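User: What would this chain look like folded?
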Amino acid sequence: GAYPFGMPASTYERLSFLDASFLALETPETHMHVGTIGIFEKGDLATPDGGLDFDRIRRHVESRLHLVPRYRQRLSWIPLEKAPVWVDDPHFNLDFHLRHTSLPAPGTEEQLKALTGRLMSQRLDRSKPLWELWIVEHVGEDRFGLVAKVHHCMIDGMSGVDLMAVLMDLMPVTEVAEPEAWTPRPAPSGAELVVGESARLTRYAIDTLRGAGRTAKEAAFGRFDELRERFTGRASAVAASLKSGWLNPSSETPINERIGPNRRFEWTEIPLDHVKAIKQTMGVTVNDVLLAISAGAIRRFLVEHRGFDVNGADVRAMVPVSVRAEGSMAGSGNQVAMWLVHLPVHEPDAESRLRFIHDQTEEVKSERHAEGALTLVQSAAATPTRMLAAGLKTAQGMRPFNLTITNVPGPPVPLYLQSARMERVYPVVPLWQYHGLGIALFSYCGTVHWGLMSDWDLVPDLDVFIDCIHAEAAELAALVAE
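Assistant: Here's the prediction, encoded as structure tokens.
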């Protein structure tokens, strides 16, 4: 409401249940930030002395910040309930978040990977907006790196509407727009938050009663069938999602022991054409092929490099899928649900592994597991924050899956930061407790870019895992060549 003396009303925005759960999941060992590592040609950002025009990059970032208001907001907490909300950060300072560093010249990609591992090992400061952007000079002779790091609760893993998305253009840009003026809106006091939340809960109760009234009216006018269809459809989706394995633990493997806070990061790439050729010949999807390559690589790694007996092993991947309604605006929090995919690590034949994955993803789609998982998330949305944190910690200890595999399709055309062309880009996925490995995939300009995150001690040989990825991709490609 308006203040009598013209002072602006304080504003806050409650975190969605899913976004709050990413905060609750975080421990000193499991950081819940995601990220990307871009490698760029310098373009005309190169300076005569062989350096980089950081000031221009800074002005460019400042000119686009108004497009992502969340990046100037920090967390606050409702008293008593201890639920998180977003408020504008009155002390926002771009220089804290945008960081300029350099590899020892001339610099190598191996050094950039090592730096990325170290950056991803550090938690973000919760008293400030939850993001960092590192500009890294001297990645070889004429390249620079950009390491973006943002808390999972800030972005939607699928819509990609984050700072990276608004900084990049489809054509080289040389102008820098004037930044829009920004004035932080006052943060509410503890008392205002309590009053605001009481009002919200009252509104929620009234809306629920109205919804019940509407349902009764529909029933009274004979629309029973439609109602039953709506409720039973959703209930069966929930049941199918739960039945896929959320309630019982997956197999213990050598990559599923307790992890520490330190990370390693590796990357590799495979041509998208190779993946599409397998897809066409086998009558499957690109996602099926990438999951099959991952499953085969995990099998090889466990058998050949960990001496693990895969017979009878139930190894599962959590695969995030977008369930954002068509046409809904980005920025309405995470709209990502989870598939649980059983990986056929017991199966010695590559083609059989691909068929196993395909049959499963078809079933998961037909039984609407993603919708079921989202319904579960929504039905849990009224859970008090403390109970949520305790419940999530218990679920993590049970370990219903062995690793995360996320695959996001990117643009087939080049993107530019000012005039600097992004040559390659590798995504970063966080590790949950008892998860020594995470796989993130991003297709860009005809190449599938693999970002591999591991616990420093549990999986020190990520380079060996990369060899397993290429061996599996080659075996599937050979099927197509026959």
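DSSP finds 13 helices and 16 strands in the chain. If you want, I can go into more detail on any region.
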